[in-house]
Amino acid sequence: MSYNVVVIGATGAVGGEILKILEERNFPVKELRLGATSRSAGKEVVFRGETYRVVETTPEIFDGMDIALFAGGSASKEFARVAAAKGVTVIDNSSAFRLEPDVPLVVPEVNPEDVKWHKGIIANPNCSTIQMVVALKPLHDYGKIKRVVVSTYQAVSGAGIEAIEELKQQVKAYLNGEEAVPSVFPYPIAFNLIPHIDVFQDMYYTKEEWKMVLETQKIMHDPEIKVTATTVRVPVFRSHSESINIETEIKITREKAIELLKKAPGVKVIDNPEEKQYPMPLYASNQDEVFVGRIREDNTIPNGLNLWVVADQLRKGAATNAVQIAELLIKYGCVKQNG
Amino acid sequence: MSYNVVVIGATGAVGGEILKILEERNFPVKELRLGATSRSAGKEVVFRGETYRVVETTPEIFDGMDIALFAGGSASKEFARVAAAKGVTVIDNSSAFRLEPDVPLVVPEVNPEDVKWHKGIIANPNCSTIQMVVALKPLHDYGKIKRVVVSTYQAVSGAGIEAIEELKQQVKAYLNGEEAVPSVFPYPIAFNLIPHIDVFQDMYYTKEEWKMVLETQKIMHDPEIKVTATTVRVPVFRSHSESINIETEIKITREKAIELLKKAPGVKVIDNPEEKQYPMPLYASNQDEVFVGRIREDNTIPNGLNLWVVADQLRKGAATNAVQIAELLIKYGCVKQNG
């Protein structure tokens, strides 16, 4: 069986990855349509050796489609409900619907069953949240996590293709002795850090920081997991890193954590300090696993653990997770066929 | 009154800053001598408009000197005790003596009185520790800090002049489509993060991480402050940043924290999210203050607080702190004059 698939935001950083991953995983695509803003309409994209023309997203693009993959951005608010109303199963990468009670928020390694109760839209979580919950799930199942203190080191590609170009241009400017001119980010990001991602909200935390708190609780089905986050942009092209400190109800030794993480789906443990082996964004890029290392017991509390978690946020943090959700929907028979 | 001063490691990143700061602060230098390894001997350095020739460090360089400023590295182990035995007051920036019971470990804003009991050597703390304790001291005095969870974002200049050059070369190589060849660091640092600073020690923590634990307790005179650290190298030329979560005995609100930090010596509060104002390494460089921002109450525990702390680790984290110690020694009459 194969499906009519429409990708909205097909020309962006996440959209490009979605197409790559649909191809790599041999996703059963029957008809493919590509939507984008009017600015990107007319661009051509190659998928499985065939050239597709990107069109401006309009309600009609969803007619006869089975699955719509939204890469993120403002198109979601405008068109996701429209698509769902036409019977299309929507997987949405924006933050618009993640906390809606009628929308499941799914990481296939963590809460796969949640796709079953969707009402037309399934939300893909924030990139920083996805890699954190994939790493924390096996530890939570064993020792019940009570509190998480997380500091992020987020790559520029989280802010789109223009952000990648901006870092490149600023580095070039620096080497030529010119000034770095920021446009995507509020300040130069080359050779700098910006402790500000998304808008500021309650209690002086950013929206990115609140996402890590609220999305984690929803995905884990545990409103009692307490998360406090500090999110920081770093001059890395791709793959987010996270320094995570957890407190559990039951003690988890380093050895136990390694054992649990090695068995966990989607996780790869890289933790061999003697050989200087630990996860790094340069080597996590273009891979689907969540890499976990620097696993250390934290003896400042009875049941503490420190972890260093790295993943390609365009893949597992966005596109791969979305395609995995689509695969789950098919597996569970939760996609209505309209084509 | 002026003093005979010898700077050991005068041609390195920290040594160069020491000379700049002695000049800036109009330190009362009578005679100046500059020592380095044999490799750097013969180099010329300008101080207050006069040219000085750097010589290879030998025991004789300390004869007749009053104050010796060691920039760090292996020279400290070889020569600091030798200098002290000759009656020279040594301020040492290496990690060799920091935890010795007969050596005060001093941050002038935190424990100035400790210089008084020196027995020839005063140790300058680790850069990451200095900026953390300057920011935490006023909060500790008010609310008693019980636990600190810190993740660092450390600039390459912490690893010396060669590391600055290495980042530049790797960025250039990247733009030219060439491979980045690491030499100072175990992996490429351009567009990457390396969660490994200094050697691995007990419990899989690095020496850099243990320094933040043990030095903080010694400087604060409080073995009960519990610190857990994750230290990470980032592709920033200069100034270290730290994401710090603290738990206190007495509740500190955001407003109280700002009030305490604004009054604290050596601290500058930059915390105005509406105007996108927060500390960043690019703007902290070449300054002496410790910049504190992103001050947020952490409600996952009764008395929690998150902070983002940035400082120029070559200045306040090393050279400025060392020269401030020398000034304190003079103020307290704790320097023997040999010249």
Tell me the number of helical segments of chain A per DSSP (H or I, 4 or more residues long).
8
Portion in helices of chain A: 25-40%
CATH class of the largest domain in chain A: Alpha Beta
The multimeric state of the shown protein is homodimer
Strand arrangement across the biggest beta sheet of chain A: 5-2-1-6-7-8
User: What is the number of strand segments of chain A?
Assistant: 14
Largest sheet of chain A: 6 strands, parallel
Question: Which chains make the largest contact?
Answer: A-B, 57 and 57 residues
Shape category of chain A? globular
Indicate how many domains the architecture of chain A comprises.
Answer: 2
What does this structure look like?
The structure is a homodimer of 339-residue chains. Chain A is of the alpha/beta class. The first copy, chain A, folds into 2 domains: 3-125 and 318-331, NAD(P)-binding Rossmann-like Domain (Rossmann fold, 3-Layer(aba) Sandwich), CATH 3.40.50.720; 129-312, Dihydrodipicolinate Reductase, domain 2. Helix content of chain A is 29%, strand content 23%. Chain A has 8 helices and 14 strands. In chain A, the strands form 3 sheets. In chain A, strands 5-2-1-6-7-8 form a 6-stranded parallel β-sheet, with helices on both faces. In chain A, strands 10-9-11-14-13-12 form a 6-stranded mixed β-sheet. A two-stranded antiparallel ribbon of chain A has the order 3-4. Chains A and B meet through strand 9, helix 4, strand 10, strand 11 and strand 13 of A and strand 9, helix 4, strand 10, strand 11 and strand 13 of B.
